[in-house]
Amino acid sequence: MSALGRRPGVLVLVDPGRATPPAAVATAQAARAAGAAGVLIGSSFDGTRETHVVARAIREAVPGFPVVLFPGSAMQLTEHADLILFLSLVSGRNPQYLIEEHVRAVPFLDQHPVPTLSTAYILIDGGRVTSVEAVSQTRPLPADKPELAAAHVKAARLIGMQAVYLEAGSGAPRPVAPEIIRACRAAAPPADIALFVGGGIRTPAQARAARAAGADFVVIGTAVEDGGVAGSELAAFVRAVTE
Ligand code: 1GP
């Protein structure tokens, strides 16, 4: 976690399948200027090359700003990252995303020992079918069953995972509800588990609500990507989470 020393914080998601390297660099520069904790780079459906190129461009242009990989598969690994979220899709029951991609990642990690953070990736119904759901062929957990989400978090913690990512899906009409975040936070004390929350967060008020409910890191992608968030507003997201 040393790459993400500053907690709580905002992480700005760059989708290498959609952003050109210059656009990704501009986003990373804006994120740093706004006081974000770092950039997340990843896509649920992406080739291999884009992630590498985008991550390298950001590291060259914005040195020292944390680059965190949020890979959709082992094919998306790159050494141009400070941290890899080693995601296991524990809300699903598809072995490929529970363990198989992880085994496939080992030859890469043997060659490039980028730090990893063992992360329980939990999809929560955000109001529509997301790319992650379609690609992983797994169903999200219901949005109104905090106890079920919390049980997944508790199980992940007992397994020894270090972080939890609650995901409503990129562009979700409904972000993860505060009741779900609160229940998951209660199952995973901040000292043990870093809690990421993302998907459908479009306003500083929503970011503040996620933080107030217990998120350590609030992830914003689409709102920035669509050009809807100017630098000053990005700073408002950061203030909402950090103040
Ligand atoms: C998606 O949680 C992230 O994986 C961010 O979602 O694009 O909706 O901000 P948005």
Number of helices: 9
Taking all Cα atoms into account, the compactness measure Rg is: 16 Å
Shape type:
globular
- Give the tally of β-strands: 8
Compounds present? SN-glycerol-1-phosphate
Strand adjacency order, main sheet: 1-2-3-4-5-6-7-8
CATH architecture: Alpha-Beta Barrel
- What is the C-level CATH assignment? Alpha Beta
**Class computed from helices, strands and strand pairing:** alpha/beta
Helix content: 40-55%
| SS strand fraction | 15-25%
Unreliable segments (pLDDT under 50, ≥5 consecutive)?
none
Fill in the CATH topology: TIM Barrel
* C-alpha termini separation: 21 Å
Order of helices and strands: EHEHEEHEHHEHEHEHH
| Number of self-contained structural domains | 1
The gist of it:
By secondary structure, the chain is an alpha/beta fold. The protein is 41% helix and 17% strand.
Please outline the helices and strands.
Blueprint: E1 9-14, H1 21-34, E2 38-41, H2 49-61, E3 67-69, E4 83-89, H3 95-111, E5 116-123, H4 131-136, H5 146-159, E6 163-167, H6 178-187, E7 194-198, H7 204-212, E8 217-220, H8 222-225, H9 231-242
Parallel strand pairs: 1-2, 1-8, 2-3, 3-4, 4-5, 5-6, 6-7, 7-8
The protein binds SN-glycerol-1-phosphate.
SN-glycerol-1-phosphate binds at residues 13, 167, 170-172, 198-201, 219-223.
